[in-house]
């Protein structure tokens, strides 16, 4: 629902853009989908909270969302037509926003029919580690998140490695987000050695690290391996692929396509050699749901990690105070949300 509202807000913001121009056509390409950036889930958590899974159980469409997404996408494109036509006929900004509110009711109806009505209050019952029973009644999702989820997600920082652009600068991607009143998507660009150092420190302290990467590159699925030397193109075709990381980003050969979690790191002589990865594709993918990526693969195809401010030097955290450099909507640093 928030993505639908975000899309319609972008439609209103681009009323005077050529409908056949690159910006509007990009926005129309994929108004809603299951992808997202880390700051987008933080925005949802801060606005709505969470509930225990058994308080809002799965439905068919939570695991099979393509048809639902397609229906909402078609409806939103119809709404874009209607809003642009109304604007062309002289409708005021207030009238357009009223029409937008009416449009969102249709999206809400599709979501509730497909996914169920989200609970406004829950009762949470559980036994603690000492076998003592606890029950908390009439908790709102936001109260549950604030009082029982022991993570302050507003302290988490998205760090990227984008060698096309200057390091130690703050970046964002135009029109990328979901909750209109949130701060949007923010990145701090750092060099790859710093990214590895910060990630390995957190892992060695016993905590996992969320990361974004280009998961399709040099992946041997049956062996659960991500390794730049896994495929020998030279022997088969008498050439090797030699583009740099920056060139692959610039020329459309790589982008962030998937997010996983780093859960382990193998260190030799003070440097990482390989990394253990927990994926979300089930036990049949990789080795019982786990992958190994080499440090060379990390250098070339890992683009983002998320860490708490306390895990970073002050000079890195201070970059968040900068004015953000805006990357275009189609930039590969926003591809994870597509």
Characterization of the model:
- The chain is globular and about 65 Å long.
- By secondary structure, it is an alpha+beta fold.
- The model has no long low-confidence stretch (mean pLDDT 95).
- The strands form two sheets. The protein has an eleven-stranded mixed beta sheet.
List keywords for this structure.
37% helix, globular, two-stranded antiparallel ribbon, 338 residues, alpha+beta, 13 strands
Strand and helix map with partners:
Blueprint: H1 2-13, H2 22-29, H3 38-48, H4 60-63, H5 66-88, H6 93-115, E1 122-127, E2 133-139, H7 141-148, E3 156-160, E4 169-173, E5 187-189, H8 192-204, E6 209-213, E7 219-220, E8 225-226, H9 233-237, H10 245-250, E9 258-268, E10 271-278, E11 290-294, H11 295-301, E12 302-308, H12 314-317, E13 325-327
Parallel strand pairs: 3-5, 4-13, 8-11
Antiparallel strand pairs: 1-2, 3-12, 4-5, 6-9, 6-12, 7-8, 9-10, 10-11
Low-confidence stretches: none
Mean pLDDT: 95
If you compute it from the alpha carbons, what radius of gyration comes out, rounded to the nearest whole angstrom? 22 Å
* Percent helix range: 25-40%
Secondary structure tally, helices: 12
Secondary-structure element order, as H and E? Answer: HHHHHHEEHEEEHEEEHHEEEHEHE
Q: Tell me the major beta sheet.
A: 11 strands, mixed
Shape: globular
- The CA-CA distance between the termini, in Å, is 16 Å
Number of strands: 13
Task: Determine the strand fraction and express it as a percent band.
Answer: 15-25%
Class from secondary-structure proportions: alpha+beta
Give the strand line-up of the largest sheet: 7-8-11-10-9-6-12-3-5-4-13
């Amino acid at each position: 629902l928030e993505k639908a509202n975000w899309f319609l807000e972008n439609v209103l913001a681009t009323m005077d853009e050529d409908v056949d121009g690159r910006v509007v056509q990009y926005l129309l390409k994929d108004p809603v989908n299951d992808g997202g950036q880390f700051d987008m889930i933080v925005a949802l958590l801060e606005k709505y909270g969470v509930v225990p899974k058994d308080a809002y159980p799965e439905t068919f469409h939570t695991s099979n969302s393509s048809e639902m997404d397609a229906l909402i996408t078609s409806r939103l494109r119809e709404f874009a037509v209607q809003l642009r036509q109304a604007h062309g006929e002289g409708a005021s900004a207030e009238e357009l926003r009223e029409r937008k509110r009416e449009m969102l009711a249709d999206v809400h109806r599709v979501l509730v029919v497909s996914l169920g009505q989200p609970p406004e209050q829950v009762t949470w019952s559980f036994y603690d580690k000492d076998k003592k029973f606890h029950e908390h009644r009439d908790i709102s999702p936001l109260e549950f998140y604030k009082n029982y989820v022991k993570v302050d997600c507003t302290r988490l920082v998205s760090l990227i490695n984008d060698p096309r652009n200057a390091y130690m600068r703050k970046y964002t991607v135009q029109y990328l987000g979901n909750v209109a009143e949130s701060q949007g998507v923010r990145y701090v660009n750092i060099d790859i050695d710093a990214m590895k150092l910060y990630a390995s420190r957190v892992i060695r302290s016993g905590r996992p690290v969320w990361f974004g990467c280009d998961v399709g590159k040099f992946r041997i699925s049956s062996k659960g391996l991500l390794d730049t030397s896994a495929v020998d193109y030279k022997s088969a075709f008498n050439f090797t692929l030699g583009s740099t990381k920056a060139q692959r980003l610039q020329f459309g050969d790589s982008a962030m396509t998937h997010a996983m979690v780093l859960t382990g790191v193998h260190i030799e002589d003070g440097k990482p050699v390989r990394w253990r990865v927990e994926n979300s594709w089930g036990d049949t993918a990789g080795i019982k749901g786990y992958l190994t990526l080499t440090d060379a693969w990390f250098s070339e195809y890992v683009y983002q990690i998320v860490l708490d401010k306390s895990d970073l030097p002050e000079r890195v955290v201070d970059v968040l105070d900068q004015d953000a450099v805006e990357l275009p909507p189609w930039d590969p640093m926003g591809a994870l949300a597509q």
